[in-house]
Amino acid sequence: xxxxxxxxxxxxxxxxxxxxxxxxxxxxxxxxxxxxxxxxxxxxxxxxxxxxxxxxxxxxxxxxxxxxxxxxxxxxxxxxxxxxxxxxxxxxxxxxxxxx
Amino acid sequence: xxxxxxxxxxxxxxxxxxxxxxxxxxxxxxxxxxxxxxxxxxxxxxxxxxxxxxxxxxxxxxxxxxxxxxxxxxxxxxxxxxxxxxxxxxxxxxxxxxxxxxxxxxxxxxxxxxxxxxxxxxxxxxxxxxxxxxxxxxxxxxxxxxxxxxxxxxxxxxxxxxxxxxxxxxxxxxxx
Amino acid sequence: xxxxxxxxxxxxxxxxxxxxxxxxxxxxxxxxxxxxxxxxxxxxxxxxxxxxxxxxxxxxxxxxxxxxxxxxxxxxxxxxxxxxxxxxxxxxxxxxxxxxxxxxxxxxxxxxxxxxxxxxxxxxxxxxxxxxxxxxxxxxxxxxxxxxxxxxxxxxxxxxxxxxxxxxxxxxxxxxxxxxxxxxxxxxxxxxxxxxxxxxxxxxxxxxxxxxxxxxxxxxxxxxxxxxxxxxxxxxxxxxxxxxxxxxxxxxxxxxxxxxxxxxxxxxxxxxxxxxxxxxxxxxxxxxxxxxxxxxxxxxxxxxxxxxxxxxxxxxxxxxxxxxxxxxxxxxxxxxxxxxxxxxxxxxxxxxxxxxxxxxxxxxxxxxxxxxxxxxxxxxxxxxxxxxxxxxxxxxxxxxxxxxxxxxxxxxxxxxxxxxxxxxxxxxxxxxxxxxxxxxxxxxxxxxxxxxxxxxxxxxxxxxxxxxxxxxxxxxxxxxxx
Lengths: 100, 176, 482
Prior knowledge:
The complex is a heterotrimer of chains A (100), B (176) and C (482).
Chain A: H1 4-24, H2 28-53, H3 57-87
Chain B: H1 3-24, H2 28-48, H3 52-77, H4 92-114, H5 128-133, H6 137-146, H7 149-170
Helix pairs in contact in B: 1-2, 2-3
Chain C: H1 9-13, H2 15-33, H3 41-60, E1 69-70, E2 75-76, H4 79-99, H5 109-127, H6 131-149, H7 156-187, H8 192-199, H9 204-222, H10 230-237, H11 240-265, H12 270-292, H13 298-318, H14 322-353, H15 364-367, H16 369-383, H17 389-403, H18 407-433, H19 447-465, H20 468-479
Antiparallel strand pairs in C: 1-2
Helix pairs in contact in C: 2-3, 2-5, 3-4, 3-5, 4-5, 4-11, 4-14, 4-19, 4-20, 5-6, 5-11, 6-7, 6-11, 7-9, 7-10, 9-11, 10-11, 10-13, 11-13, 11-14, 12-13, 12-18, 13-14, 13-17, 13-18, 14-16, 14-17, 14-19, 14-20, 16-18, 16-19, 17-18, 17-19
């Protein structure tokens, strides 16, 4: 049997990689993919704990997270396409219309 | 070292490698494909953890629909090659990676040693039948439609809004 | 807390939400059926719809007993959820009214549909008692708001603000989700009211880690420091009715969740999080007010002002008392009315002059005394001048904080209130004493507008002058949480 803590460590690693991606990459799509990676690592945590507690709420939560992620991806990619149409670029460095 | 442990470490290496590959790749299509690989390995982990239904949903929805949508948009925008030079300050990536490593190290130490409850091996199933029933579509469905019926109904509306939002944001106004 | 088995009367408790879904259906059908010439009526339908749902909420769903977990423990049917619902529906009415004659978004049925979805999500956020319900409700609201912020896809600023809001929001909500997963993992519970009992036996670091991650997500919604960076850009770029809605309803929803979550799930580490929130409140107030001093664009000014207002309200949370929560509720009510008036004026002036720079508001009092008066009421209330509602709101917050012993925080708040007066008065000076660039400019105020602005402005004055009933309602609602 694999200890639950191994799964938790793995999900922590994936989560950290996702956070690194969001904070360091400048391409909007890659940033969004890193967010998906973070969501996935949270899913892995949920399922691992669901197994630990023999409680299906964790798996149901993962189900909902996937549904929400699908809707979020639709709207998010639509926003990225809209930006691209006006600026011909999706680099975050070029989003400078709004300045303080 | 049981066969399970070997398999776990192998798949873990593939998952982490795919994630890092997604992060470092210069080509957006390669990044997306690495992420698909990562999702597929996570689906395997779901199988190990007694969640066959969720594993199938992961492959169908995440790897199958969401990543395909990503690839569509990447191809649509022609964003495979990342042209622009980055304005990230030179000390930012190493600092982020360092913080990430610190976080993971702390998390590992915490979970492995002082973690709450007993995070040793999860309790084994009583019978083979119970092992098959846990995480099966029937069991998940029962929990979903009994306790969690309200969020379930709300997600139907959420999907409608996601769809309408996507259509409105990409609609071509010149045709109206 | 026990979960009540399903009884048909529980459906009455979610009647507002059911009616909102019906309203969404009506709006879609009307959008398809109405000819282009009559499209502006869609906004009126939406406003009337929200008004009807508000009426039904007030008449039918007032909870008789405080507390009570329904629908399998997903929602808690108590006074605080009721109070927030009323707030969100009212904000929806006013937003729909000020969006009606907008040349860019007033004719789009989808705008009002997504607005309905956002209000629905917020209603559920305020009532949610389970991690799963909370997550679904938060995401529903957020996804609706991302689409609303980026709605003017042709407009560079709007699209950019939508994308920035989206990336920031998705990032913080995935951090929050990881926090939820740790909470579930440490306790095996998804119901908020069972978490507290399960967390007591665990080491401190466990609760603290989960708290910090969860606070990131909620902090984003209330725009507290250091998660406030999105606010100025998004407020400036989004269509102004959307900014109005965001600044009022989204912030209130964030506070609803923050209050309920922290009080229900983390009583064990109260001493730690009250100090943390107190420090964050002080930072938020100060940063918001200080940066507002330098702003030339009125929407950005109001964005930083909103950040500072969030700081004041966080003080009430740090006070950790029924009085503190009651003060937050009263302040949110005042803030809703006030900000809606301010943004209502900005929408109109923006439509006529095409600009959101403060300099272009010069001499507004001569060109349109009514609008200038509305702005005067709004800004004086935000600054905290008696007898307007903002004065008593701040007073209530300060006294509740001092009663809990955090005198230093009250002093910081007082200093901040004085600093904020400066920038509010500067705008008023430009409005009343400046010379207008274009003496002949006319500011037509359409009927729905007049209704909305009058209602809110009178509300600000009334809520400030006759404080008794409002304070009682707020206190009763807050009492249900303790």
